[in-house]
Design brief:
mainly alpha, 9 helices
């Protein structure tokens, strides 16, 4: 898994570097807004965020994959700010009980926070061949998924 690797310039794993891009004040503000840690003793919003990011970035298919992947190294866990790897039942409960709006709001606040730096790196241009024409974009994810079933 690539997210266990440490880069040449830092001793922080790649997932830790990605998590460091999330300003703590933004995360705390959405946690406070939705009271998402209320009644949670061990599996906090941050823990769920880390688990979900880990699962997404490592293409995990199940909560068991995430739990097993996170439990490989205690050093890795501490580097990404977790005290222990969450059990799949704990993650399942968190997914059921915690309001998804916490993560949706965090996403939009991160977009707003990084808006200027994203604008400066964004390059767009008009393709003359399709200028003023209707273009349909098709997500082929389901096609590949359906093909694998057959």
């Amino acid at each position: 898994m690539a997210f266990f690797r440490r880069s040449k310039n830092t001793n922080i794993p790649l997932l830790g570097q990605i998590l460091n891009l999330i300003p703590l004040h933004l995360l705390k503000s959405v946690i406070h807004k939705y009271q998402s840690d209320k009644g949670c003793h061990k599996y906090k919003t941050y823990d769920q965020l880390v688990a979900l990011l880990f699962g997404q970035l490592n293409k995990c298919y199940t909560l068991c994959d995430i739990s097993c992947g996170l439990s490989i190294s205690s050093t890795f866990l501490s580097d990404i700010g977790l005290t222990q790897s969450p059990a799949k039942s704990t993650m399942s409960d968190g997914n059921k009980k915690r309001n998804y709006k916490v993560f949706e709001t965090l996403y939009y606040r991160l977009l707003s926070y990084y808006k200027e730096s994203l604008k400066s790196k964004h390059q767009s241009h008009v393709i003359d061949e399709i200028k003023n024409q209707c273009v349909k974009l098709i997500d082929s994810t389901t096609i590949g998924l359906c093909l694998s079933l057959f």
